[in-house]
């Protein structure tokens, strides 16, 4: 990894760029947009790219990365690429084949980070959120410690440089950390985190264990209808963020990103718009905020906006 890009050291000795580019878009958005946006992001200076098997966009994102390698903009080792193991593939024997399928789509030899996408095993199949006849999610019986051992083997086989988790609470993290014979600790826990959901307790716990917290939904999430309460306030319209944006002559988006970076959190920011991609990259060059955001002044400090909210929470025990 080129030292020009600000990075954080992971507990296995690898480095993660502190600002990452999110590539998820709902199914209605043509997948080709992920290729164009990822190329623009690399041109703008992003070196950390976040995608997932479940986003069904790894062919397109891989194409963008390879084309930016081919035109000389970057080398493979300059890019930090994250993929994620879907909930339907948590059975240990499914882990390596699933990662190999991602690599085949990406046409890359390895990923930099492979993480368990969601700590709730679901029945295998094409549908990533399968339902039973009664409308409840079709859950599966898998011990996450067995899944973790399969991830450790993928790291040993060189298919991924680092391994981690996503959407884990403290109890689920402890289960892995306390696993007898643990070979590698998770390097990160990727969770929803922004001024409306500060994750202070989880952040303290992760820091105490040497686990990096990676934040998604930092710009208010994509407010995907099945997952978000449409009546919930829109983060980037928050008056506290607005006042700070005015004071620092930045946008609310840049204040939200900087606020998290200052707390030692790695930030993902998604945009498929060229100007906003360039705008978000500016954060890496901006000086720190003098004050912290007082979350009590923002509309809410415990407001989940993404997929842990609403329908999923009714069905699954968080
Ligand atoms: N592990 C998980 O379970 C999980 C869950 C959700 C997301 N993620 C990852 O995290 C990434 C980011 O999270 P997210 O997709 O929820 O979105 P986000 O980063 O919170 O962005 C939300 C929206 O903000 C808009 N935006 C971007 N830059 C902006 C700016 N400077 N000013 C105003 N608006 C701006 C974007 O729209 P435009 O495209 O129109 O600019 C985008 O759709 C995802 O893409 C994915 O890679 C992971």
Short structural description:
Residues 19-285 form the NADP-dependent oxidoreductase domain. Substrate binds at residue 117. The chain has helices at 32-44, 58-70, 92-106, 144-156, 170-177, 200-208, 239-248, 252-262, 274-281, 310-315; strands at residues 7-9, 15-17, 19-22, 48-50, 80-85, 111-116, 160-166, 188-192, 212-216, 266-270.
Notes on the structure:
This protein has one domain (7-230): NADP-dependent oxidoreductase domain (TIM Barrel), CATH 3.20.20.100. The chain is 33% helix and 15% strand. It contains 10 helices and 10 strands. The strands form 2 sheets. An 8-stranded parallel beta barrel has the order 3-4-5-6-7-8-9-10, surrounded by 5 helices. Strands 1-2 form a two-stranded antiparallel sheet. It is globular. The structure holds NADP nicotinamide-adenine-dinucleotide phosphate. NADP nicotinamide-adenine-dinucleotide phosphate binds at residues 22-24, 50, 117, 166-167, 190, 216-222, 236, 251, 253, 268-273, 276, 279-280, 306.
Share in β-strands: 5-15%
What's the shape? globular
The CATH C-level class name: Alpha Beta
**If strands are numbered along the chain, what order do they take across the biggest sheet?**
3-4-5-6-7-8-9-10
Please state the structural category.
alpha/beta
Query: Which second-level CATH architecture applies?
Result: Alpha-Beta Barrel
Query: Can you tell me the CATH topology?
Result: TIM Barrel
- In the CATH hierarchy, what is the superfamily? NADP-dependent oxidoreductase domain
List low-pLDDT spans: 307-318
User: Which compounds are bound in this model?
Assistant: NADP nicotinamide-adenine-dinucleotide phosphate
Fraction of helical residues? 25-40%
């Amino acid at each position: 990894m080129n030292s020009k890009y600000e990075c954080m050291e992971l507990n296995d000795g690898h480095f993660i760029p502190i600002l990452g580019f999110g590539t998820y878009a709902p199914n209605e958005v043509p997948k080709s947009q992920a290729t164009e946006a990822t190329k623009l992001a690399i041109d703008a200076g992003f070196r950390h790219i976040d995608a997932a098997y479940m986003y069904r966009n790894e062919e397109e994102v891989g194409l963008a990365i390879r084309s930016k390698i081919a035109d000389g903009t970057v080398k493979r080792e300059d890019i930090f690429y994250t993929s994620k193991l879907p909930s339907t593939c948590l059975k240990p024997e499914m882990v390596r084949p699933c990662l190999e399928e991602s690599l085949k789509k990406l046409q890359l030899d390895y990923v930099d980070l492979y993480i368990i996408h969601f700590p709730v095993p679901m029945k295998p199949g094409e549908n990533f959120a399968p339902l039973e006849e009664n409308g409840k999610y079709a859950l599966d019986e898998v011990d996450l410690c067995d899944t973790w051992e399969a991830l450790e083997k993928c790291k040993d086989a060189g298919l991924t440089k680092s391994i981690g988790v996503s959407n884990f609470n403290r109890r689920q993290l402890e289960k892995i950390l306390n696993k007898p014979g643990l070979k590698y600790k998770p390097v990160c826990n990727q969770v929803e985190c922004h001024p409306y959901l500060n994750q202070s307790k989880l952040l303290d716990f992760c820091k105490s264990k040497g686990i990096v917290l990676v934040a998604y939904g930092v710009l208010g999430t994509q407010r995907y209808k099945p997952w978000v309460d449409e009546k919930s306030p829109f983060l980037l319209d928050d008056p506290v963020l607005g006042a700070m944006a005015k004071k620092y002559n930045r946008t609310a988006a840049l204040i939200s990103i900087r606020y998290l970076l200052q707390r030692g959190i790695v930030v993902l920011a998604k945009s498929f718009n060229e100007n906003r991609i360039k705008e978000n990259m500016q954060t890496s060059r901006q000086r720190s905020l003098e004050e912290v955001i007082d979350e009590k002044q923002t509309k809410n400090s415990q407001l989940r906006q993404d997929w842990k909210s609403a329908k999923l929470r009714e069905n699954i025990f968080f």
